[in-house]
Design a protein that fits this description.
With 374 residues, this protein is an alpha/beta fold. The protein has two domains: 4-134, Response regulator (Rossmann fold, 3-Layer(aba) Sandwich); 170-370, Methylesterase CheB, C-terminal domain (Rossmann fold, 3-Layer(aba) Sandwich). 40% of the residues lie in helices and 20% in strands. It has helices at 13-25, 38-46, 64-74, 88-99, 114-152, 170-175, 192-200, 221-232, 287-297, 316-325, 343-349, 359-370; strands spanning 4-9, 29-35, 52-56, 79-84, 104-107, 183-188, 211-215, 237-239, 251-253, 259-264, 270-275, 302-307, 327-333, 355-357. The strands form three sheets. Strands 8-9-7-6-12-13-14 form a seven-stranded parallel sheet, with helices on both faces. Strands 2-1-3-4-5 form a five-stranded parallel sheet, sandwiched between helices. A two-stranded antiparallel sheet has the order 10-11. It is elongated and about 60 Å long. It starts with a strand and ends with a helix. It catalyses: [protein]-L-glutamate 5-O-methyl ester + H2O = L-glutamyl-[protein] + methanol + H(+); L-glutaminyl-[protein] + H2O = L-glutamyl-[protein] + NH4(+).
Length: 374
């Protein structure tokens, strides 16, 4: 199988060598070119056939954001992975990059153990490259099928057809009654920041249900994400804090680097609890941790679970538990609108998805279900 052709752009020679070695060690890709600044990176991209660009966030001449914007405009088929440092400035730029169409980001290694750092980089890149190859193969197959269809079929007059429903599991929705919602929970990973923006922006100012979000991100990044979403949404969006009450009409995002759970408070109230217990599904925060806490502590609640784009199967175990112990209805993002159809696929293939919905329609479905409509 042909390997992905990669450009590595970083202004530091040491990091260019580290990234090149990590890319080559995945066995899925080869570094065709390197670049020490953004202008040189664009020159490489314009004159060569490439599949992936690994871009340092801050480079001379042109920074990673400027290069990303040009790639999206001129070479939309190229997948862009950002190489980010830690800290607020990096987090802010990275969240902006994700909203502009970057596939994902990886943090520059800071482990004192060089071998451990390299293995971590290799593992992250391996997972991303695998998803890029799957998308590329699917796209090539669709193009080939379309070409065969166009060359083999005689010309015919196109007749009007009924508009296809965005919900893939209509029959399930018709049988499964869900009258109202007490809590909305959302899980997302790769491609999640853009998907979250599309969903949360469409929730109206009078939306009266609490929304809890688990997006796989490191510390600092979730705070910046919350601030970015709050500027664009009609509802307040915050990074959740220890001991905060879960309030109606408020979107609370689990802090990067911490698991978020919900515990019963005084009366009918619910309280956010945070902890740094071990990684679950290789991540922290993990959706499974939040969902399982709801299954244990909110057994009488009507919970609407929304599983958006992301790698892996985080959320599967938690949705299973909520289906067993709560009145839980589950929406999964449709395959065709996912950046990575991993988390939604795992839930759908387990038979736990009540509907598969295009990302553009998810907010409308949430609003309808919250209002008691089907």
């Amino acid at each position: 199988m042909e390997k992905l052709k990669v450009l590595v752009a970083d202004d530091t020679l040491v990091y260019r060598k580290i990234l090149t070695h990590a890319v080559e060690s995945t066995g899925l890709a080869t570094v065709e070119f390197t670049a020490s600044n953004g202008l040189l990176a664009m020159e490489r991209i314009r004159h060569n056939k490439l599949d992936v660009a690994l871009l340092d966030m801050f480079m001379p001449e042109m920074d990673g954001l400027a290069v990303l914007e040009q790639i999206r405009n001129e070479h939309p088929h190229i997948a862009v992975i950002l190489i980010s440092g830690r800290g607020p400035d990096n987090a802010s730029a990275t969240v902006r990059a994700l909203s502009l169409g970057a596939l994902d980001f990886i943090l520059k290694p800071e482990e004192s153990d060089a071998n451990k750092s390299m293995e971590k980089l290799k593992s992250q890149l391996q997972a991303l490259f695998a998803q890029i190859k799957i998308k590329k193969l699917s796209s090539d197959k669709e193009s080939s099928a379309l070409t065969r269809e166009q060359t083999q079929k005689p010309l015919s007059v196109a007749l009007p057809v009924a508009k296809e429903r965005t919900t893939a599991s209509l029959s399930i929705n018709q049988k499964r009654k869900f009258n109202g919602v007490d809590l909305v929970v959302i899980a997302s990973s790769t491609g999640g920041p853009v998907a979250l923006e599309k969903v949360c922006q469409q929730l109206p100012a009078n939306f009266s249900i609490p929304v809890l979000v688990v997006q796989h991100m490191p510390a600092d990044f979730t705070r910046i994400l919350a601030q970015s979403l709050s500027r664009k949404c009609q509802l307040p969006v915050v990074e959740a804090g220890e001991g905060e009450l879960v309030r109606p009409g408020k979107i609370m995002i689990a802090p990067g680097g911490l698991h978020m759970t919900v515990q019963p408070g005084k009366g009918a109230s619910k309280v956010i609890k945070l902890n740094n217990s071990p990684l679950v599904n290789g991540v922290r925060p993990a959706a499974d941790v939040l969902f399982e806490s709801l299954a244990q502590g909110c057994k009488r609640d009507r919970i609407l679970a929304v599983i958006l784009t992301g790698m892996g199967n985080d959320g599967l175990r938690g949705v299973t538990e909520m289906k067993l112990h709560c009145d839980c209805y589950c929406l999964t993002q449709s395959e065709k609108t996912c950046v990575v159809y991993g988390m939604p696929r795992s839930v759908a293939e387990a038979g736990l998805s009540d509907e598969a919905v295009d990302i553009e329609e998810i907010a409308a479905r949430i609003n309808r279900l919250v209002s008691g409509g089907q």
